[in-house]
Amino acid sequence: MEGNLERIAKIAQVGGPAPGLAPAEIRQGRDVRRPVCAQIKQRKAPRPSTGVDPAKPLLMPAEWRVAASLALIAGYVDAYGFAALGVYVSFMSGNTTQAGAQTGQGHFAAALPSVLAIMFFVIGNFAGALLTHSGLRRSRRALLGAVAALLAVIMGIANWVPLNAEVGIAVIALAMGMMNTTLSQVGGETVSLTFVTGDLARIARHLAMAIIRAPVQGARGSWDTHLHRAFIVTRVWGGFLTGALLSGAAIPHFGVWVLLLPFMILLVLAVHGGAGDKLARHQSA
């Protein structure tokens, strides 16, 4: 109150408020040096839009389909590699264990397929990361098209000559390494197409945090809860499992031609990549 009275006294000393000011503001202890119209404009100034509705999830159905499709392909092709070639082509934890155990037992030749898969998977990741961050327009579509082309090469070779296991391992591991760089986040949550152990650990962690009602770090809205994020990762893991189940059931009947399904899905995603472009923008946000 004393502060308001001092301000009123100072205004009275200089002859009262200037024309265009609100005398009623003096009685309410407000700053009368600013025109009323300016105060109204300030109160009515629209809040800048962030482009994010905090009441709605960021992911649209099309983007869910992209994430689920890529996870399904990863599990599908990995199951083919294990059943037909004897190694994992996207699950490098298993290959590392196999290579280490066989080398430790002195079975160096038996360890070579796993080592080959690891090498070409890393090369594929390297190439995919370069292409994704190269600044090339629609790099994600180009990357998915390249993965589809590599699968087509394997089917073409097998159609003419018996598929050499080492060639198959190298080409398919290269393709899976490249595809692994196409998806790293879904709805703000870190996911992995091939590191299923990490996905399962994230599901368990989010469920535990949901029970104790811990806040989500970097939450994008009221909808972004630990249960929501656990659901995101569960869908990715479920896609991987579904792909492995479908591949395992189809391999005895179709052989290498089981790769036709992931080839067609990748081709569709590469040609109609609008949802993938949106997902890429969310990841970089």
What does this structure look like?
The chain is an all-alpha fold and 285 residues long. The chain has two domains: 2-44, no CATH class; 63-284, Growth Hormone, Chain: A. The protein has twelve helices and two strands. It has helices at 2-13, 23-27, 36-44, 61-85, 92-104, 108-132, 139-160, 165-179, 196-211, 226-254, 260-271, 274-284; strands at residues 185-186, 189-190. A two-stranded antiparallel sheet has the order 1-2. α4 (61-85) packs antiparallel against α8 (165-179), α7 (139-160) runs antiparallel to α8 and α9 runs antiparallel to α10. The radius of gyration is 29 Å and the shape is globular.
List the keywords.
two-stranded antiparallel ribbon; 285 residues; mainly alpha; Growth Hormone, Chain: A; single chain; disordered C terminus; 2 domains
Largest sheet: 2 strands, antiparallel
Global shape = globular
What structural class do the secondary elements suggest?
mainly alpha
Do you know the CATH topology of the largest domain? Growth Hormone, Chain: A
Radius of gyration: 29 Å
Average of pLDDT: 80
Q: Helical percent range?
A: 55-70%
CATH architecture of the largest domain: Up-down Bundle
Instruction: Count the DSSP helices.
Output: 12
Measure the end-to-end span.
48 Å
User: If strands are numbered along the chain, what order do they take across the biggest sheet?
Assistant: 1-2
State the domain count: 2
Top-tier CATH class of the largest domain:
Mainly Alpha
Query: Topology as H/E string?
Result: HHHHHHHHEEHHHH
- Note poorly predicted spans: 44-52, 275-285
Report the count of strand segments: 2
Strand fraction: under 5%
